[in-house]
Amino acid sequence: MLSSTLLLTALAVPAAFAQSNLDWDAAYTKATTMLGKLTLQQKINMVTGVGWQKGPCVGNIAAISSAGFPGLCLQDGPVGVRYASGVTAFPAAIHLGATWDKDLMRAQGVAMGEEFRGKGVNIALAPVSGALGKIPQAGRNWEGYSNDPYHAGVGMTEVITGVQSVGVQACAKHYIGNEQERNRETMSSNIDDRTMHELYLWPFADAAKANVATFMCSYNKLNSSWACDNDYALNKLLKGELGFRGQVLSDWNAKTTTGGATRGLDMTMPGDNFGDNNFVWGQNLLNAVNQGSVSTSRLDDMVKRIFASWYLVGQDQNYPSVSFNSWNNNGGGDVSGNHKELARTVAGDGIILLKNVNNALPLKKPASLAIIGRDAINNPAGINSCTDRACNDGTLAMGWGSGTTNFPYLIDPLTAIRAQAQVDGTTVVTSTTDNASQGASAAQSASTAIVFINANSGEGYLTVQGNSGDRNNLDPWNNGNDLVKAVAAVNSKTIVVIHSVGPIILEQFVDLPNVIAVVWAGLPGQESGNGLVDVLYGSKAPGGKLPFTIAKSPSDYGTSIINGDDNFSEGLFIDYRRFDAQGITPRYEFGFGLSYTTFSFSNLVISYTSTTTGPISSTQNAPGGYPALYEPVATITARVTNTGGVAGSEVAQLYIGLPAGSPSTPPKQLRGFQKLKLASGASGTATFVLKRKDLAYWNTASQRWVVPTGNFNIFIGASSRDIRLQGTMGPSGSTTTTIGGSTSSTTTAQTTTRVTTTPSTTVTTTRTTTAPTTTRTTTVATTTRATTTAVITTTAAPTGGPLQSKWGQCGGVGYTGASVCSPTATCSTLNPYYAQCL
Ligand SMILES: *[C@@H]1O[C@H](CO)[C@@H](O)[C@H](O)[C@H]1NC(C)=O
Ligand SMILES: *[C@@H]1O[C@H](CO)[C@@H](O)[C@H](O)[C@H]1NC(C)=O
Ligand SMILES: *[C@@H]1O[C@H](CO)[C@@H](O)[C@H](O)[C@H]1NC(C)=O
């Protein structure tokens, strides 16, 4: 059974997480000195990759021996060092995101950084927050942490800080608007200014704030001009508004011109067009400089940025030289250290328990187990047999494309379960195909059946089973629905384990009475089976939470792969923002996940310390944008208690709703989360420090973040819909609390009450014992200020706002997703581009 000590000691996070001492000014001083040593031709060479496969790494900048510069090695990617042996195949970013554990994110960043450094890589081409993931079918969503910008921003911050703490330059990519694989190199992403700021730019702002050394611009166009040739995106937004001081490199052969240099691009990669010796910069850029169409001062700025990024993380001091070769998969020895332990911890901690009837899990020494499905075993042809993992035969532990590594080994689920079964004396029968009738015969003979299904996606240059990067649908692959149904038809204890790049539709089997548990095992990397066994057998309680919504129908998402240009007409309303606004009931909402124990929430304390409203600005800019955006303005705490019988973890989540009268905005937006690991009976405090930007919306007219006036709604809960505590904070620092929800989700999924709250219009006193279906917990609310009373002010009743003809939705002031639009409501300001109320 569950060992609380094992869980509580968890992972020893390296102590070397020194606060960032990165100093751009000092880096620029050194860069300027270095620049002075270079000839014009050497400057051109500094900004032009040597050409595809002309060096050991996927991207290479030549050495300049006269200046003592050893050159640059750029290498993929977000799960570890690509094209190398002796490295770790880490859990994918979406799996790390599912842990909601900042310490693990930081630790994986450090560990990946150590391996890149160990191989002599200067620039690790990670992390990813573009695609953000607005389209659930999009092929590369699994390379990022979450489709919520706040969550993605935390992932970016932690991983960048970790990677750079060991001296490796991180690269925030793909900037920006590359939300699907289909037509990614020809389509235009037309994103309105507010949506750009509040969704897509948000995590990149956090990356800049974390002092990321480099950015990679993306393949797509923005408003019909290439992202890597885009003055607005690169100069105005990134280097201007976000105060980014490092260098921007192109995605591999992303379209640009010599004019791209004046529009903000600093380096072309890989230099030529994948080996054709046709260099878009190089001699062409030299000519442009000589003719004056690109100024020498701009060229100097490009070179200084590249050197400053290099000096920023100390790569001029004792940095290892490149010790591997991408093109023959060898060299450099084993740099993986003890990272397999971290890989196993993350593999287990990112697992999300979706359904668990009558404590079906953890397994308690079952007499017999049937292990069913091709996804339970390694690909018989070899774990690395497909180019860049572009096949879906055997257990799925990462997607396909450039964001992959070679597996050094892959612990498949069957191997790990067999090891435990041997200890327990459990008989194991198997059917390791996806053949439904074979699966059913195996299941018939066992007391418990575990069925493995999956869904894969990847980068669009490779097609797998007819899926050209993006998924063709949101169903499990290889007839997974039929396999589960056939097994559940004959076995009353059917457990479904899902490896997937993103949401799949579960409706064909999730409610079947014989499906007693559903385990979301994500994309767990090389330690897949071990991480799974840790959870299935209860050596740790599951603690992952969904980093996306699982819908009942694909159309519920309101976004899908587009042919031609994408106008981003859904605006701010992606994933749970849309489900909340439109009142669509998901199967499992963003932020959801069960445990083997239960948690109560109490003692909401809101301290709103800086109540200045209006546009936010500072006299000077800094990485991430105006420093005033990042100043703390409120501290909110809540008590979380483990009310169940075993140790476990809960992710306390804070969502805000803007005051009534604010521009049309999703009813809830994530603005804080904290994972608490608690022994049975123990309590902890979740502390959320809101920064000014967390309360603001982007005002396109003033081109500023603006903190609106009025009462903000504060929601704290165990998911985006399981809200347990609720309050408001408003002018003069006044705060009120109401009590929402009840005890935690129980482990009996079918009887779980997951309370969905809407902006409250009820009056509630400070102490309430709630919950019709559970009785254990009393939630208590207090306020920080003696002057506030226990009686809440009511927020305005929801009104539909005017009809937005383009979307057929209600919108505008007071918009809460009502299905009936107010005929009298009018827009205070109409956004002409999308016929959307501002
Ligand atoms: C694209 O056009 C829209 C509408 O004019 C504007 O709000 C947005 O800022 C533009 N974005 C870029 C990257 O040019
Ligand atoms: C599934 O297995 C059964 C029994 O072995 C076999 O008769 C059938 O042809 C298989 N189906 C497929 C699609 O391979
Ligand atoms: C996007 O907007 C443009 C300009 O308004 C319009 O011509 C085009 O049809 C729109 N595309 C889609 C897919 O709606």
TrEMBL record:
<keyword id="KW-0119">Carbohydrate metabolism</keyword>
<dbReference type="InterPro" id="IPR050288">
    <property type="entry name" value="Cellulose_deg_GH3"/>
</dbReference>
<keyword id="KW-0378">Hydrolase</keyword>
<dbReference type="InterPro" id="IPR035971">
    <property type="entry name" value="CBD_sf"/>
</dbReference>
<comment type="pathway">
    <text>Glycan metabolism; cellulose degradation.</text>
</comment>
<dbReference type="InterPro" id="IPR001764">
    <property type="entry name" value="Glyco_hydro_3_N"/>
</dbReference>
<keyword id="KW-0624">Polysaccharide degradation</keyword>
<comment type="similarity">
    <text>Belongs to the glycosyl hydrolase 3 family.</text>
</comment>
<feature type="signal peptide">
    <location>
        <begin position="1"/>
        <end position="18"/>
    </location>
</feature>
<dbReference type="InterPro" id="IPR017853">
    <property type="entry name" value="GH"/>
</dbReference>
<dbReference type="Pfam" id="PF00734">
    <property type="entry name" value="CBM_1"/>
</dbReference>
<keyword id="KW-0325">Glycoprotein</keyword>
<feature type="region of interest" description="Disordered">
    <location>
        <begin position="729"/>
        <end position="776"/>
    </location>
</feature>
<feature type="compositionally biased region" description="Low complexity">
    <location>
        <begin position="735"/>
        <end position="776"/>
    </location>
</feature>
<dbReference type="InterPro" id="IPR000254">
    <property type="entry name" value="CBD"/>
</dbReference>
<dbReference type="GO" id="GO:0008422">
    <property type="term" value="F:beta-glucosidase activity"/>
</dbReference>
<dbReference type="InterPro" id="IPR002772">
    <property type="entry name" value="Glyco_hydro_3_C"/>
</dbReference>
<dbReference type="GO" id="GO:0030248">
    <property type="term" value="F:cellulose binding"/>
</dbReference>
<protein>
    <recommendedName>
        <fullName>beta-glucosidase</fullName>
        <ecNumber>3.2.1.21</ecNumber>
    </recommendedName>
</protein>
<keyword id="KW-0732">Signal</keyword>
<dbReference type="InterPro" id="IPR026891">
    <property type="entry name" value="Fn3-like"/>
</dbReference>
<keyword id="KW-0326">Glycosidase</keyword>
<keyword id="KW-0136">Cellulose degradation</keyword>
<keyword id="KW-0964">Secreted</keyword>
<dbReference type="InterPro" id="IPR013783">
    <property type="entry name" value="Ig-like_fold"/>
</dbReference>
<dbReference type="GO" id="GO:0005576">
    <property type="term" value="C:extracellular region"/>
</dbReference>
<dbReference type="InterPro" id="IPR036962">
    <property type="entry name" value="Glyco_hydro_3_N_sf"/>
</dbReference>
<dbReference type="InterPro" id="IPR036881">
    <property type="entry name" value="Glyco_hydro_3_C_sf"/>
</dbReference>
<dbReference type="Pfam" id="PF01915">
    <property type="entry name" value="Glyco_hydro_3_C"/>
</dbReference>
<dbReference type="Pfam" id="PF00933">
    <property type="entry name" value="Glyco_hydro_3"/>
</dbReference>
<dbReference type="GO" id="GO:0030245">
    <property type="term" value="P:cellulose catabolic process"/>
</dbReference>
<dbReference type="Pfam" id="PF14310">
    <property type="entry name" value="Fn3-like"/>
</dbReference>
<feature type="domain" description="CBM1">
    <location>
        <begin position="802"/>
        <end position="838"/>
    </location>
</feature>
